[in-house]
Amino acid sequence: MERFSEFKKNIRQQVPLAMHTWFQLGGIAELFAEPKIEEELAAILKRCRELQVPTRTLGYGSNIIVSDAGVRGMVFRLTASCFTDIRVEGNTVVAGGGAKLGRVVTTAVHAGLAGLENLIGIPGTVGGAIAVNLCTSSENLHRWVKTLRLMNPSGKVLECTNQDVSFGGNDLDLQEMILLEAVLELNEEDPAELSKRMQRNWIMRKTMFPTGQCSGYIFKNPRGGAASELIERAGLKGTRIGGAVVNERNPNFIVAEPECTSTDVLRLIDLIRNQVLDRTDTELELYIQVW
Ligand SMILES: Cc1cc2nc3c(=O)[nH]c(=O)nc-3n(C[C@H](O)[C@H](O)[C@H](O)COP(=O)(O)OP(=O)(O)OC[C@H]3O[C@@H](n4cnc5c(N)ncnc54)[C@H](O)[C@@H]3O)c2cc1C
């Protein structure tokens, strides 16, 4: 900790990450920082780079499984108000990287700005959602991105447009960056109509997701198919390893029962992948990230 003594107010050591992830599983972070201002984030990042301390950014933890061994290095969380602010400017919503997606959606809807209402009920932050290129069957968040403010590993702030970033491609590598702020350009529409649409989406989504302690989608949908159907075809609904169980309603989710560990989940993921490959000849690719 001496290495970071001047930042010690906002850096903690050996912090359990389970409570910061949707799955509520996994080990500790060696170092955990919640900087109060951008300059502090930049200074800690710079120090990490000098000392070759690996860094990661945690959003709402809804697309991450933390291994039981935990995470080496520094984990950032953007919880200070300068990273979670949301404001409406004309037909755009300007949202901090740490802002909750649900709040961004409702802010847009109440302001009569359409585009995001289909994302209601999906847990996450703006930074996490853009980093993973959040999409649903009918919507893709990145199409609404006008500009992004990013911080690179040296602590330098960059501004870029949607075209500068290849989401999931090779241009500006978002994985290397911390997303500080996104400007989302939306379409004007009647707020009452939008509210109704958002409520319908919310009800529909609530019926799609398992209740209780669970993952998000484990696998990406393969081209032309649905991962959940392949898992079902492989006869894996309800399969269990330790406290980890393949969900009956949507087999692309894993439910964590009491006493479940990340190791149980990771072993179940391996089993699903191997059996789906054997029985359907399709290689499933992980959507959820393993830390
Ligand atoms: C019940 C449930 C339903 C879901 N439904 C969907 C769905 O329909 N569609 C879909 O696409 N996903 C879905 N997900 C997955 C998840 O909600 C989304 O991927 C979400 O956008 C992830 O955001 P997060 O803040 O939780 O990111 P995290 O899980 O915390 O992090 C994910 C990645 O983003 C990076 N990241 C986080 N914040 C930042 C930042 N500020 N700057 C740079 N990188 C950052 C992390 O380092 C990590 O690599 C679902 C998950 C759950 C639990």
Roughly how many Å apart are the termini?
22 Å
**Stretches where pLDDT falls below 50 for ≥5 residues?**
none
Give the H and E element order. EEHEEEHEEHEHEEEEHHEEEHE
The overall strand count is: 16
Number of helices, where a helix is a run of at least 4 consecutive DSSP H or I residues = 7
Strand content: 15-25%
Principal-axes shape call: globular
Largest sheet: 5 strands, antiparallel
Rg over CA atoms, rounded to whole Å, is 20 Å
Identify every distinct bound molecule in the structure, by name, code or SMILES. Answer: flavin-adenine dinucleotide
Written description of the protein model:
By secondary structure, this protein is of the alpha+beta class. It has 3 domains: 2-77, Uridine Diphospho-n-acetylenolpyruvylglucosamine Reductase, domain 2; 82-208, Uridine Diphospho-n-acetylenolpyruvylglucosamine Reductase, domain 3 (2-Layer Sandwich); 227-290, Alpha-Beta Complex (Uridine Diphospho-n-acetylenolpyruvylglucosamine Reductase, domain 1). The protein has helices spanning 38-51, 81-84, 101-110, 126-131, 191-208, 227-233, 262-280; strands at 11-16, 28-33, 55-58, 64-65, 71-77, 86-89, 92-96, 113-114, 145-151, 157-161, 178-185, 187-188, 240-241, 244-246, 254-256, 289-290. A 5-stranded antiparallel sheet has the order 6-7-11-9-10. The chain is globular. The mean pLDDT is 93. The structure holds flavin-adenine dinucleotide (FAD). The site of flavin-adenine dinucleotide has 31 residues, from strand 3, helix 4 and strand 11.
